[in-house]
Specification:
Length: 378
């Protein structure tokens, strides 16, 4: 027990040393060259891994999750420091990095992404470590993190390359690819691991799965929300693809001008929704209609994490002072746009909770012969 608690405390304090590292690098000119920043990042990453290894001592973790959480927790505090300085709460930490590391970190999207990483992801890493040390289940929490982390990097990396900061890409920027690969690994690892399904009586499963969608009000409402979200996804996808329809033209100028912000992030996000989010939502509609889709229990949580992070960044960045006034939501339309975007993320979150709290409809049914045999043996 003491060993496990010590590991969590060590991770916490090692992560809090990140601002000290940034302050030293910001005030020592030697660290202000692009390749020096990259090399320092790699060295620090190795040092953090070594500290994690030593903190475990003789009881080494049996999987890589421990080291991923340690590395990413340290990175989360680095990002939070950047967000705080960009918003004027601190100074003297990341000036060198925004010049020769990642100039795109001064954008509204990057700032709000850093807040999410520094608060939500940091807490998730500590909770994952805690649950792992206590031998508690953390599959759902891990999937939520994996989806959230993938959403962050899948928009940030291509958005930075194609946006107005694409001509100022320095070597340190490509360290973000490691974060993207880490989230993909986390999702793949959790999805491929053996799942401990909740114990649901066969009679209850059979009874629930006999009901049609029309006799399940909650699922009917969720299906309606998902269908509405799919329509909204297609519409905004057409908007960023410069569809000549009047409705698309009016929407981007009167409701969400942020979609044409030259930073590139909102355009990439709408395309990610269109090509990846739309098929997922269609699959969820199928899962709500067809009983026995066990995969819904995992993928809905993964998608909920994805949508929560993406919509947080999209909504908050469109309102942030760093976004030029002409690209912010118009004052007379902000309530309608805000409600539409909040409703857009509500459906995946509610669906994920529904699958966790009441999984009977998605369970595999027991063959009739097997049920009879079990009853006779009893």
């Amino acid at each position: 027990m003491k060993m496990k608690i010590y590991q969590e405390i060590c991770v916490f304090f090692v992560s809090l040393s990140a601002p000290v590292l940034l302050y030293v690098m910001n005030n020592v000119p030697t660290f202000h060259e692009p390749f020096v920043i990259l090399g320092t990042g790699l060295v620090v990453s190795g040092a953090v891994s070594l500290l994690a290894f030593l903190s475990a001592q003789r009881k080494q973790p049996k999987d890589i999750l421990f080291y991923v959480c340690v590395q990413f927790a340290f990175t989360s505090v680095l990002k939070l420091t950047n967000a705080l300085e960009q918003d004027g709460f601190t100074s003297g930490f990341v000036g060198f990095y925004q010049r020769k590391g990642e100039p795109c970190m001064v954008t509204a999207y990057a700032i709000m992404m850093c807040y999410w990483d520094g608060v939500v992801h940091f807490l998730l890493y500590l909770l994952l470590l805690h649950h792992r040390a206590k031998a508690k289940l953390y599959r759902g929490m891990g999937l939520f993190w994996a989806g959230s982390s993938f959403a962050s990097m899948s928009v940030f990396i291509p958005g930075s390359v194609i946006g107005k900061y694409g001509s100022n890409i320095y070597p340190a920027f490509w360290l973000n690819v490691l974060l993207l690969l880490g989230s993909v690994w986390g999702a793949a690892s959790l999805l491929s691991s053996l799942r401990e399904l909740p114990v649901v009586p066969a009679d209850e499963v059979e009874s629930v799965q006999r009901k049609t969608l029309l006799t399940r009000p909650t699922d009917l409402l969720l299906t309606t929300f998902l269908l509405g979200a799919m329509v909204f996804t297609v519409f905004r996808g057409l908007v960023v693809l410069d569809c000549p329809l009047d409705s698309c033209f009016n929407y981007i100028y009167q409701y969400e001008p942020y979609l044409k912000d030259p930073v590139g992030y909102p355009r990439v996000m709408m395309l990610v929704y269109l090509f990846y989010g739309l098929p997922m939502m269609a699959a969820f509609v199928y899962g709500l209609v067809t009983p026995g889709c066990t995969w819904m229990l995992d993928w809905t949580v993964l998608f909920a994490g994805f949508m929560a992070q993406a919509q947080w960044c999209h909504i908050s960045a469109s309102l942030h002072p760093r976004t030029p006034y002409t690209y912010r939501i118009p004052e007379e339309k902000w309530q309608a746009v805000l409600l539409a975007n909040l409703g857009y993320v509500t459906a995946p979150l509610l669906l994920g909770l529904r699958c966790i709290w009441s999984p009977a409809f998605f369970m595999k049914t027991v063959p009739p012969g097997q049920v009879t045999k079990e009853k006779k043996s009893d």
